[in-house]
């Protein structure tokens, strides 16, 4: 019998672990290299236990290719939750909107950045100037300034390095906030928190589905979401980083 790992919390909404399970299954259905869900209930999720290994170039390239395939599996709309799931969604311990949109810019500004600004301000982690620039960036994003016509991708949604596990059989992903989004958002989060062997991951990704020109310059745009989430509860350094990324977006819009 395979070894298992059970996460259990009595203080969460009954949808908390069910959202995680639905996201993992949806990403797996799209070809994603995710941990296997064995069981789930109101206060627990049971997963396959994973062994650890050192990050390697070959595993990184294979991960990049698998990530591109998963993204290409797509979603119905921007913001769509996992197929067949109608409950609440979360990123970490915070609620994640399931409101959908036909364009990425409208979705990203309204559902992935703006909801976290008031909590960040109330916590004292986002000052007035940084908040104002973030709102200006959101207005430009919502207006379609950065829309590129790419269809909704099936993204992990919380792809920081702690959710990328290196095993003897390759990379396995855990703890998603899965939804229909832009594929560059997952890559920007890998960059934000320092994924090992990231250059090899990108090389593998582009071998399957090349990225659109200028994607590196758009990293601050796609980091607005994780920075806003962190600014809402993890300290003023994230508010400062959010303001810096927002200024980069405003500057980029002026260059167009």
TrEMBL record:
Keywords attached to this entry: Kinase, Transferase
This protein's record includes keyword NADP: no
Matches recorded under Pfam families: Fructosamin_kin
UniProt keyword Transcription regulation present: no
Signal peptide per UniProt: none
GO molecular function annotations of the record: kinase activity
Domain of life, per lineage: Bacteria
Family, per entry: Belongs to the fructosamine kinase family.
Identification of the protein by name: Fructosamine kinase family protein
């Amino acid at each position: 019998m395979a070894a298992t790992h059970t996460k259990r919390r009595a203080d969460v909404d009954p949808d908390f672990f069910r959202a995680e399970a639905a996201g993992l299954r949806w990403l797996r259905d799209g070809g994603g290299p995710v941990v296997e869900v064995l069981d789930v209930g109101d206060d627990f999720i049971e997963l396959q236990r994973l062994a650890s290994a050192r990050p390697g170039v070959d595993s990184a390239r294979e991960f990049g290719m698998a990530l591109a395939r998963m993204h290409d599996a797509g979603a119905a709309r921007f913001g769509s939750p996992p197929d067949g799931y109608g409950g609440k969604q979360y990123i970490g311990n915070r609620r994640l909107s399931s409101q959908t949109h036909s364009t990425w810019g409208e979705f990203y500004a309204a559902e992935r950045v703006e909801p976290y600004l008031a909590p960040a301000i109330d916590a004292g982690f986002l000052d007035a100037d940084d908040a104002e620039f973030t709102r200006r960036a959101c207005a430009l994003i919502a207006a379609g300034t950065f829309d590129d016509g790419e269809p909704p991708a099936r993204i992990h949604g919380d792809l920081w390095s702690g959710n990328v596990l290196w095993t003897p059989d390759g990379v396995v992903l855990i703890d998603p906030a899965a939804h229909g989004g832009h594929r560059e958002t997952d890559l920007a989060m890998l960059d934000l928190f320092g994924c090992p062997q990231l250059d090899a991951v990108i090389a593998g990704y582009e071998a399957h589905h090349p990225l659109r020109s200028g994607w590196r310059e758009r990293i601050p745009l796609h980091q607005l979401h994780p920075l806003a989430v962190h600014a809402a509860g993890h300290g003023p350094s994230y508010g400062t980083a959010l303001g810096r990324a927002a200024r980069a977006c405003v500057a980029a819009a002026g260059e167009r």
